[in-house]
Each structure stands twice: as structure tokens, then as C-alpha cells.
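From the shared-data thread, chain only:
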Amino acid sequence: MFELPHHGRYGYSAITRRPDYSWPQGRRLAIYFALNIEHFAYGGGLGHAMTNELPGPDARTFAWRDYGNRVGVWRMYDLFDELKAPACHLVNTAIFDYCPEVIEPIMARGDEIIAHGRTNAERQGQWWEADEKRLIEDVRDKISSHTGRAPRGWMGPWMSQSRVTPDLLQEAGYSFEMDWPGDDQPIWMQTRNGRLMSMPYSLEINDSPQILVRHHTGEEFATMIVHQFEEMLRQSERQPLVLGIALHTMIVGQPYRLYALRRALEHIVNHPQADKVWITRPGEIYDHLLSLPEGTVV
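Structure, as C-alpha cells:
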């Protein structure tokens, strides 16, 4: 038999042939809002960009990114408060040193912090195992020391992974990761010392690739959110599903994009079939799945 290289983390499973279950109160579509809160190096390293980066220290691109922490994140907190909606926040630990005030509303709201590396100026996918292990543990310890609780979820900067990232995450005590956008349900991944849950996280309903790479407008992105929600709500009659909406402070935090985003999220929160929808956080999805009989999650 012809075999291609395989990651060995999970096998094939058709979503139409899995055990059925529901979210709390019989709901069928779980939704979480994921706000990426990131910090970048000045004059080097990786980073989101609206235009071609300039040679030398690119002050305009650094400042555009920094707008997310100075302005955009606060507008997003206001929006979540207006909607009375929970959220999760994918946080670079450099934020704790650069602008610790940004963390305070997360704690006050009771929201979830997902570990998101030190900074999105780097990615660890090609690091030596010992260096990546140190990163994963240092990020865990930094969040724990500042918030009083260790993060349960991880998403690598740029969703980067090495060949051993799931192993290192499981060994460091993480419960789930969000780097494998291959399903609309959480699934179990195998590691060398046990299992780790893969939580759906979208590259499609994600403002960074849609707006910065594919050059869609804020209005078009908002329409994508609505269409994705409506279709997945219909599909969830047959299978329980998870819809993650990935947002970045410097992108949707811009007023004209925020205007369109507000319309899309209000559509979800105020939908006539809201009783079929569970607006939640990834950690709560994980907890609910653990309460189900063994074998329910593939």
C-alpha cells in the first residue's frame, strides 16, 4: 500500500460517523470569541503587516501593531461587555511586562487566557526540543504567576508547531491546543505520554488571513461570520459543532472594521434560535467534553 508521511497524532474520522452528543442545555452549536493580544519587537522579527514593510526600523508597522494594545483591545473589551458575551484571549506573555493593564479586564470579566507564546515576533516550529520545552514551560509559569492559575490551552505564535509540540504541551500540563484547524469538533490527539485535545480554531473565520492576506474588507469579513454561523447552525442539527471566531486587536479594533464586526456579533447573540447556541470559552468546552462517556470524543 502506498503511504504518505503522517503525523501519527490522530486517524481519519468522518464527522458524519461519530457519536452524537449535545452541549449544555441541549444546545448544538458552541461558539467562542478568540481575541489575540500580541506584542512585537521593534525593528526586527515577525509580525502582521498592513503594507510592505520598510527597510530599517519600520516605525509605522510597529506603531500600527501597537495600536492594538493602546486602543483596539479596549474597544474590543467594550464590545464584549455590550454583548454580555464571554471571550477567550490568546496572550503573548510579553504583554504582562509591556502593558500589564491590558490583563486587568480579562481577570475582572472572568475570561480565559490561552497561552500564545512569548511574542508573535518569533515562532518555535524549528527550534531544538529543549528550547521549545523551555518556552512552553516559561509561558505557563509566567501566566500562572501573574493570574494565579495556569493556562489550560495553548496556541503557538503563528500557530507554529514542531514535530514534538503536542508531546511537550501534554507533558507541561496543558489540556488542549488550538494549532490544528482540521475539524469542526474537538478531537483527541495522541502524544508520547497520553492524549491532548485539539480544539477547533479557524483560519477561515479569522481576520488576519482574510483581511491582511486575502484583502477582504471589514464588511466582507463580517458577512463571512454571519454566513458561517448560519450554515453551521443548520449543520449542528446533525452533529454538535464548535465555531471559533478569531480576532486581532490591531485589525478589527480599527473603528470602521469594529462597526461591521459589531453587526455580525449582534446577529449571533440576538439570533431567534439563540437557545440552540452556547456562547462560551474553550476551557468550558473541554470541561463539558470530559463529562461525557469515554469514547464520545474521537
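The chain has one domain: 20-291.
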